[in-house]
């Protein structure tokens, strides 16, 4: 082997090793978080944890059933409000967003994407809580929806833009009207990507705490009335972790594990949907 | 080229196609008599496709694309403002250089797409038209068992290279041969085909 070939091999090996090391470093925090959560939380997970509401402080037992249900309701409300608006805006941006209005919408979405979630929380408090006079799950859902909309709009736009231009031309050449081309060809072709984007968006807001502090507030009892305060897992963790009781800390770890599991499940579903789309069909 | 008494259904008159301020096709006048095949040949990039795209108002969909001059379809200027471009495209079909099956549709739906968009056809009617189109393309035997599977899963490379092109071609052909005022289409199609092979 010539000297040059040897040098190339060495350089290649060194770079590969370096990249692998950096990659491992990037994943390390996740492994630590998981390890910690399982170590401290798994022992508290039992049937009661999922089926019972909390017991008065100081007593043992009790669970976070109310927070799990609450997370479902608040995130569900956020989806109900946020998904149609976000996806609709995204389709608009991709299909009709070349003009001035598109530019403005895109700019606003980007700014909103960068807005700290606590600011969204204060905003939601000002407009959804104060006029009504009390905290509510509905306000929480609204706040989360506000976080979701710009994210969804941008990912949906990207996904629709990824659909090859030739498909649009093929449809138009057949005599498809513009709106039908958009919905039947462009959006349908991008559907897997849009669903993935939606799931990732849902997973992200499911873990939000700051905007919910001002809106859903939290609730130590089981509640399903969306016009009243409601507990979510993230609020529960916040409350328990900052509380004075060891029992609370234990439950906070367990709740964190459950929340992490939920988010992970959503992300995996997103991956699975994408695979289904590109693998099978 | 045309017989003196042939009926001309499609004609380009002093057609100039532009991208922004750049002229792509300059001042073309051409008659397309019925029941003839017109081939447009020329070196790569000389504007064959751009010219064809002007004939069914596809050119204006390109970035910055616009047109001067007239294109007469049955003596009516398709750029005259009275005809809806969507309608023009339903009457003048187009086969692209590259096949583009719709990935979300089955083989059947791909072939039927052009007919469905025109509406007003019974299921049986549609099925018959799809079969006819696929038979014309010599693909029926190959795909008849999986008409309702995805058009993208259609194996490329089986029985000649044309297989991968199949799902879209019948759809255009089908659309062409059955548009309401028929027969103006085969010419446009043949021209674009010869353009692709020139």
Question: What structural keywords apply?
Answer:
heterodimer, A: 281 residues, mainly alpha, MetI-like fold, 2 domains, 12 helices, B: 198 residues, alpha+beta, four-stranded antiparallel β-sheet, 4 strands
Structural class of chain A: mainly alpha
- How many strand units of chain B? 4
Q: Any idea what the radius of gyration of chain A is?
A: 23 Å
Calculate Rg of chain B over CA atoms. 17 Å
Q: Largest interface: which pair?
A: A-B, 20 and 27 residues
Provide a brief overview of the structure.
The complex is a heterodimer of chains A (281) and B (198). Chain A is an all-alpha fold.
Report on the architecture of this protein.
The complex is a heterodimer of chains A (281) and B (198). Chain A has helices spanning 3-41, 47-51, 65-96, 100-114, 117-129, 137-162, 165-173, 178-189, 191-206, 210-213, 233-241, 246-280. Chain A is an all-alpha fold and 281 residues long. Chain A folds into two domains: 3-44; 50-273, MetI-like (MetI-like fold). The longest helix of chain A is centred in the first third of the chain and has 39 residues, at 3-41. In chain B, 35% of the residues lie in helices and 18% in strands. In chain B, a hairpin with a 2-residue loop joins strand 1 (8-19) and strand 2. In chain B, helix 3 crosses helix 4 (123-136) and helix 4 packs across helix 6. Chain B is globular. The A-B interface holds A 164, 166-178, 180, 185, 188-189, 191, 281 and B 56, 58, 61, 86-87, 89-91, 93-94, 96, 98, 100, 102-104, 113-114, 117-118, 150, 152-153, 168, 171-172, 175.
